[in-house]
Every structure is written in structure tokens, then in C-alpha cells.
């Protein structure tokens, strides 16, 4: 070996053994300025957030995290998250350049979320909705087991409570680190939506943002009764390069954009971000007031009409002084008051459960409410207040329920339960488990 070769080997060995410096990745959200991905204009982040992350120069819609979307869609102090503590695992012990567990920790530290979706309930212009928002900043918004479970639980809760469902999609598809477990979420979410839409006859609105690709597009993103999208959003299943190589053809420049999909009938409406809340509010209001609607039902065995969480919510707002008179309730049923009919329709499933578990004597106590609920054609179940917080059911203040009358007439122990006036304007009857 020559001296020059030995020196070269020593230099390479020195470079290999030198300590590596890991430069922290730059986070544009923590700086003061950012650049538009479309036109390249330098934007002040504070002003950009006030404009809902829409470029001032070209109107391009930049990526927005889930918390900002919730703040823009939901009325103040009405957001109630669901399943916040549900966190992912590593069933396959997957590892590529770094372990899957470390990728999860990095995403959780970066976004402050447990996984790539936030679910919950809130008011949209005074209308109660169930909302799910995906966050692309958490591992590209990929759909894993936790994302599928949280969305499925949200759909089941919206089905039980009769809420309008809105899902804001921003995802790269199924999460490859979880393998077949992530692919199973597509079928699980779709089966929940089938009950929600076809059986309960409730409204599901899908909002597609950039990007929405892969398994999310192939499942719940394109199953909405109404499908909205943001301008110039990237929406597709496979990548553009894969399709070009498969078809051996050049694709249009606007391929897999929201405008292209709207032109070919895959979308219903393209809504700019600043008008999205107003568009959703007007759409839900139009659906509520639409004629010739059919009352939906939840198939037996899918969900219990009344579960323990709902019972606990009711019990916490019940006071002993708010016991209503059942005779007044029967008089209200004969008058066919509009608000009373709306409440009967909202709790038609509960009334039918009471009728099935009652004897011949106590069936007569609920005969008129059941007939009135069965004859109704309006399936709008969300009972809400307007923007001025004026209750739409004033007759509840005058109702009183006599528990002794119910117990003596039927031989069962009935515990009257109802929500507080300012909570949700609902009431239910529960038959005691200790009844004979």
C-alpha cells in the first residue's frame, strides 16, 4: 500500500468515526414568515392565520392544522372532544429507518395530539353537530387503528344522538406501519356509515382538503351524502406518476384536483375556506326543513337505545324539584303541540323500548305518544336553540311528572329524568332495573 492510499484510508475512517450533528427540522409554524406553496409570496404568519391560511396574493389554500379548523367551524366554548386519551400501539413492532414508536412520539410532541384526528361535538351557528377533523401534520394524517376507532365511535355517537356528521379529511391514506390493521379501518368506518346513513337516515357531509389520497379517499371520504372540497385541493387514490406509468398516457395538468373532480361529477360543491362554515350551516338548515322525510331507526343489536354514559349525563343535571306531572303530559299529547311532536320523534326509539318491556296495563300510559311519534314524517332529531339562545320548547317549563301515579298505575318504579333547560332540552323516562 502506498503512502497516498494509506492517507486516503485514514481520512475516510476519520470521517466515518466523526460525531454526527443532527440538525433539528425547521418548523414553519413557529417562525414569523412563510412562503406560499403556489406563487412563492412571502407571508406574515400572524396575518396568514387571521385569513384562515389563505394566500393574499393568489388565494391558494395552505395546509391548516386540526385545532385551527375546529376554531373556524365551531362556535366558541361549545367544542366537547371525544376519546382524547385514545393512543396508538405498535402491534407489528414495525421498524424502518426508525422504530414506529419513535415516529409516534415525534408526531405527538409536534402536534400535541395522540393521533391524526380530533373528534367531538359542538355547535355550528347554533346547530349541534358531530365533527371529526384529520391533522396532516401528524404522520401525514395517515389512518391507523386509533384514527379508525375514533371516527367509528364518533359515527356511532352521532347515530345514537341524531346529530349531523361532518368529517374534514386531510390524509395520505392508510398507515403502512400498522399493515392490515390500518386497512381494516376502511371497512369498519364504512359499515358504521351504512347504519348512520341508510338506517338512521341522517346527514353526513364530507369536506375534502388538500391532500386527501389513498385509503381515506377509497372509504369514508367519498361516501358523504354531500361532498364539499376546497379550491385546488389534491384528491385522488394512487399517485399521478403511478397512473401515468400504468396507462402509458399523459394526464391533464389539473388531474386529481377538486375542479377536475367537480367537472366529472365526483364532488357536489367547491367552497372557499372563508365561506365553509356558512355553507355548512345553510346546508344543514335546508336539510332540516326539507319535506317528505322519513324517520330512521337503529337496527336491533347495533346500539342500545340508552346506554350508561347518557344515563350519567342525565342524572348529573337532574334535581329533585324538577318532577313533572304525567297527567299534564297526556294533555299536551292530545293538543299535538309542534315542539312536543319534535321531542317525541327525537326519542321514538326510547318510547318503543318502553312499550316492548311494559305490561298491558302500562302500555296504555304511552299509547298516545307512541302513535303520535309513529305518524310523524319529520326525522330531524337534533333539538337545538337559535343563535340568540332562545328555547324552542317553552312548554317544558309547565310540565310536571308524578312518579307515584306512574308507580301505582303500572306496578313499576319509574324514575323521571330530564336535561336542564340550558343544556339540550331533552327528557327521557327510565324504568328501574329493580322493577318486578
Your description of this structure?
The protein has 436 residues and is an alpha/beta fold. The protein has 3 domains: 27-60, no CATH class; 63-288, Alpha-Beta Complex (2-enoyl-CoA Hydratase, Chain A, domain 1); 308-431, no CATH class. It has helices at residues 3-17, 45-50, 66-73, 100-111, 145-161, 180-199, 214-217, 240-247, 258-263, 276-288, 308-316, 326-335, 338-346, 348-357, 360-363, 367-375, 403-410, and strands at 33-35, 42-44, 80-82, 117-124, 127-134, 164-171, 204-212, 226-229, 269-270, 414-418, 427-431. The strands form 3 sheets. It has a 7-stranded mixed β-sheet, sandwiched between helices. A two-stranded antiparallel sheet has the order 1-2. A two-stranded antiparallel sheet has the order 10-11. A hairpin with an 8-residue loop joins strand 10 and strand 11 (427-431). The radius of gyration is 27 Å and the shape is globular. It starts with a helix and ends in a 5-residue tail after the last strand. Mean pLDDT is 77; it is low at 23-28, 319-323, 375-410 and 412-436.
